[in-house]
Amino acid sequence: MKPYLPIAVLLMLASCGNGGNSEAGQDGKLQQKPAINEVEVVTLEKTDFPRQLLSNGKLSAISRARLVFPTGGPVESIHFKNGQVVPVGATIARIARPDLQIALESAEINLQKAEMDLYDYLVGQGYTAKDTTSIPPDIMAMARMKSGYLAAKNALARCRYDLSGIVLKAPFRGRVADIKLSRYDQVGSEPFCTLVDDSAFLVDFTVMESEYSFLSVGLPVRITPYADASRSYQGTIANVNPSVDKNGQILVQARIKGESGLLDGMNVKVTVERIVPGQLVVPRSAVVIRDNLDVLFTYTKDGKAHWTYVNIIASNGHSHAVTANTDRGASLQEGDQVIISGNLNLADGSDVVLKKKC
C-alpha cells in the first residue's frame, strides 16, 4: 500500500504550482486571489511634439540630359566610361565623318573664290576693292549678292555646324550613364548617353489633401533609401504643388544635397517633421483600444487603473499627442500618472502595482 501525503503538504504543493494566485480557505478549499498587474508609469506634461508625416518618394538628379549626336556615323572614340564625372564642355565621344571635313574644305575654297568675284565686281563699279569703307551700303549689299559671297559664307557656316556634330560635349558637369555603344558601332537617332548632375537631388512624393496645412516651403525633410535603411539624408521642401489630383493627393518636391549612396531614380522613404509646441505627449504603448476607441489608463493613489478615453491628434514613430475625449466625459491634465506598460489586459478599476526599477 502506497503512503499518503498529509493534506497540508498537498495544499502547499497546490499553492506553489498555482503561482501564488490561490490560497486555502477555512474549509481547506483553494480560493483564487485577485490578480495584481505590474505596470510602469510616466508623469504627463506638456512638451514640444515632433509631428511626422510619412510618404514614399523617388529621387531625380537636379539636372539630367540624354545626349544625342546630331548626325550619324561610326564611333571613332569614347573618352569616358559609365559612372565617371565629366567637366562642363569636355568631349565625351566622337564619330568619324571624313566627308564632312571634305565638305568644309570645299566650302572654304568656294568662299575664297566668292571674295575674288566680289572684288572684281567692285572694281568694275569704279571702287577700290581693298577700301570698302567708302562704298555705299546698298552698292556693297548688291556686290555681295551678285558675286555669290553671301551664299558661299552661309554654306561655310553650315559645313562648320555639321562638322561640330561629330563631337559630343558635356553641356554641364555631371556623371555619365547609359553608354551602350563601343568603338566602330554605328550611331543612330537614339541617345548616346545620359548625363546626370548628382550634386543635388529632387525627391517627389505625395501627401493627402488633409495634410496640406502641415506643409510649407523650407520644412525639414529626412529620406531613407529602401536599399539601405541604415542611412538617412537631410533636405528641405522646395515647393508644394497648389493642386489636388483626382486621387485627393498633392505633389510635393524636396531638395536633397547629393551624397554618396544616392542614385538617380532611387526609391526612398520620406519623413517630414514639424514641431508642435505645448502638447500632452505619451509613448505609443500607452494607448490601447477599448470599445473600438483609443484609451489610456492613469494610475491612482489607491493603486487602481483609471480608464480614460482620448483623442490622438498627431503621431510619430514613437509617441502620440493626445487630448481627453470630452464626448466620453474624460479628463486629462498635466501631472497625471499614465500607465505605459502592463496595460494590455487592464480594465477600469483594475488593481495595479508599480513595477520596481532595477
Give the arrangement of secondary structure elements:
Elements: H1 7-17, E1 22-24, E2 30-32, E3 37-43, E4 46-67, E5 73-78, E6 85-86, E7 91-95, H2 98-124, H3 137-146, H4 149-164, E8 167-169, E9 174-177, E10 186-187, E11 193-208, E12 220-225, E13 233-240, E14 249-257, E15 267-283, E16 288-290, E17 293-299, E18 305-315, E19 319-324, E20 337-341, E21 352-354
Parallel strand pairs: 3-21
Antiparallel strand pairs: 1-2, 3-20, 4-11, 4-15, 5-7, 5-10, 6-9, 7-8, 9-11, 11-14, 12-13, 12-15, 13-14, 15-19, 16-17, 17-18, 18-19
Helix pairs in contact: 2-3, 2-4
In short:
This protein has 358 residues and is α+β, with helices and mostly antiparallel strands. 18% of the residues lie in helices and 41% in strands.
Q: Keywords for this structure?
A:
single chain; 358 residues; alpha+beta; conserved putative lor/sdh protein from methanococcus maripaludis s2 fold; Elongation Factor Tu (Ef-tu), domain 3; 4 domains; six-stranded antiparallel β-barrel; four-stranded antiparallel beta sheet; 4 helices; disordered N terminus
Termini, distance in Å?
52 Å
- Total E-strand runs: 21
Share of residues in strands:
35-45%
CATH architecture descriptor name of the largest domain: Beta Barrel
Q: How much helical structure, as a percent, in the residues?
A: 10-25%
How many structural domains in the coordinates?
4
Q: What's the gyration radius in Å?
A: 41 Å
Strand order of the largest sheet: 4-11-14-13-12-15
Separate helix tally: 4
Taking all residues together, what is the mean pLDDT?
Answer: 88
